[in-house]
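User: Can you model how BES sits in this protein?
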Amino acid sequence: MDLRTQTLPAAGVAGVAADALLVVVVGTAAPRGLDAALAPLLADALEHGDFEFKPARVLYLHRPAGFKAVRVALAAATEPTPKAFKAAVAAGLAALKVPGVKRLAVAVAADDTDAIDDRHAEALAVAVAEAVYVYRHTKPSAPAAPALAAVTLLCAKPRAALLQRGLVRGQAIAAGVTLARECANRPANHCTPTFLAEQARALAKSHGLKAEVLDRKDVEKLGMGAFLAVARGSHEPLRFIVLRYQGAGKGDAPIVLVGKGITFDTGGISIKPAAEMDEMKFDMSGAASVLGTLRALAELKPRVNVVGLIPACENMPGGRAVKPGDVVTSMSGQTIEILNTDAEGRLILCDALTYAARFKPQAVVDVATLTGACVIALGHQHSGLFSADDALAADLLAAGAAALDTAWRMPLDTEYDEALKSNFADMANVGPRAGGAITAAKFLQRFAKDLPWAHLDIAGTAWKSGAHKGATGRPVGLLTHFVLARAA
Ligand code: BES
Ligand code: MN
Ligand code: ZN
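Assistant: Here's the modeled complex, given as structure tokens:
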């Protein structure tokens, strides 16, 4: 898709030729100096109650007199924030979503158009990609994706370069989000550990990254006893993926992103109830977000090194499956009593964290659909952020805010560690139900002792349930912004 800025024609928005024109009206009253063609339209719509200055209110107009565009939509953003702007764009696109729209133009009506900057342009690019995404891989009967081919953001000439940078950033993030959604939406009989490794290899080839894929024998040699314990219940072979982006000097300490790649989580011998178990195909969303982030970075080429690590396997019951009470030795040498085989995410991640240390990283961030408890704590709004490193936590929170892909910090006090005591190993893999997201993070922390480490629990944010069931592609935006900020 072609995304670019365009200077507003002298005739104003009415002179814009497009299949559809979306005007985001910013504020809580008609903006000063409003376009001559828009002013009477807006006044009339307000008078008749067809438009209000309420978040994401939309007025659709077909071939309004005097306009070159076939379709026009006005969408309200009550605040000049990127968040309100993005919501208005999404609502406007929903109203305009018709097969005939190939060329979309977006204009902003605001008291102060200088308040509209690259963050808004980025939000536009991301919102457009979100709106046109259709999952089709195993549903060829799904309606074809909208034919939208070109989006132009109208602006005054001096603003064009700044806004263009935002569009480019947004488009790269959107490509990463789409890749993550596409991987995570795929059912587990398609999206296997082998498939994830192929995706990594394909991405390396197309985007100039380096991919290395380890198999069971390699993982055995490394002594990843915790990862192996999870994988052993399944006939599907495990993979450990190492994907590298080099944007800085060889000696520069990289950022390591670790993604949980459980391609299906039955719970293992501690089997899950049947209801909604299908959604456990999304249990590789952390892995998908790491792939998506590397894709975005490969397009944006920041001057920083990044390593993606993905332990990938299925969690299945079976004759060879790990059993409650089994004790395994992790790559770190610490032993783990597996009291609940459904707490498998931390078992594959702990060995990946030990592996991460070899890169002498400037930061390690693991991303995982780790606990149902995190969904109870934070719902679907924020990802859970855990880190003992205040500076790293602040960077991640800021990145989430900038990307409109937010996280909320959770505690890691030493007192929570008690819960992991075991009579038969250095630690148990679960504690009591209370504070479950925190004890999971405390477990991981034991394997990141000497690392500048943070953990994102995305169990509530990685996918939607119900009628709109599907992957969100979060937290590709957060992670991409985090890396970009470290490079700046
Ligand atoms: N993948 C799940 C976490 C999950 C559950 C995410 C539901 C989203 C929705 C994870 O492997 C898991 O099963 N966690 C257990 C941990 C428990 C056994 C301590 C959980 O949350 O129930
Ligand atoms: Mn589980
Ligand atoms: Zn899981």
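A couple of observations from the model: Residues 2-175 form a domain with the Leucine Aminopeptidase, subunit E; domain 1 fold (CATH 3.40.220.10). The chain has a mean pLDDT of 97.
User: Helpful, thanks.
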